[in-house]
Amino acid sequence: MNRRLAQTLAFALAAIPVMILACSPKEPYTKETFVMGTEAWVTIDGMDSPDAERAVEAAFREMYRIESVMSNWRSKSEISRLNAGSNGAPLEVSGELFSLVDSSLSYARATSGAFDVTVRPLVLLWGFQGEETKLPTDEDIARALERVGFAKISLDSSKSTVMLPRGMQIDLAGVAKGYAVDRCVAVLKGLGVRNALVNLGGNIYAIGSPRGEQGWKIGIRDPEGGARTVGSFFLRDQAVATSANYENFIEIDGKRYGHVIDPRTGHPVSTVLSATVVAPTGLASDALSTGLFVLGPDAAKAVVERLGNVAVLFAVRDANGVSYRTAGRFDRRLELEHAYLDSDPTNRR
Q1: How many angstroms from the chain centroid is the CA of residue 327?
Q2: All CATH 1.10.3980.10 domain ranges in the chain, comma separated
Q3: C-alpha–C-alpha distance, residues 328 and 309, integer Å
Q4: Which fold has domain 78-170?
Q5: 214-347 has which CATH code?
Q6: pTM summary value
Q7: With 342 labelled, which of 1, 85, 100, 246 sits at a CA distance of 20 to 30 A?
């Protein structure tokens, strides 16, 4: 394992212990790249290196393709053409983009708007994408909120059209990486991969497990931003993603503001440190990690119970310091180190 990859593992959500990887008769194959503005890597266990290399290259090509379709930073991407071309009129899009927008709106509805792909005006207002950082006024926020609201988007499945009110834009940053992970997984499985771990900027999917193990061991990063992990669990044939404010934040007049903004109020969320979501797909874990982070532990519980196939671990700051709360059930034992777990004990096994 090269030095760069070791550093990536140390700071990513997933930490794959060497003792797990080294147990396989064949050396695991790992390759990394940079795509969608972040580090990505794939580890395949139990496959000959030439076949593993071909599979990873095919998966990476799929990630690059999705970036070309979904990136707001590329003026010729399909999502950029939609944002520029709708202006209150229906615009026909590809079946892939239509499906992703439709799925995004379903997660917006499931979280009562806590996850919203139209939040971009607020992100820009607060200066999280290179704009000047200054504290917005209530009037500034109110004006931005006029251009936010997933319910204002109209879809027509019979014509594959999307209609955005004039001045509104869709930003798929909250789902595109998770979707890309799902597509990467589909490519790998189609090429015969049975045991692999895919990581795209902390959006992770575990295919099978290292042979002889119950799953891929996933480390939970320090919610206050340290490099250490504070706990772990095993992941198999599921996805995981984390939303947190420890890397992306701004400081205004000596106060720190995290980058996760509540689309309903226009203000950054300050009560939650991180939300780690395990779900059947990368898309689900990506969208829900943001939506549940915004909702917080109490409101999130009802959403998790209604969905029935997800679990979330919250890190929150309270009078006792940092505590952890869960909703839903983790398929494999969740272990937290030197931490207080404020949850139903049946959530641990």
Answers
A1: 18
A2: 78-170
A3: 8
A4: T-fold (1.10.3980)
A5: 3.10.520.10
A6: 0.88
A7: 246
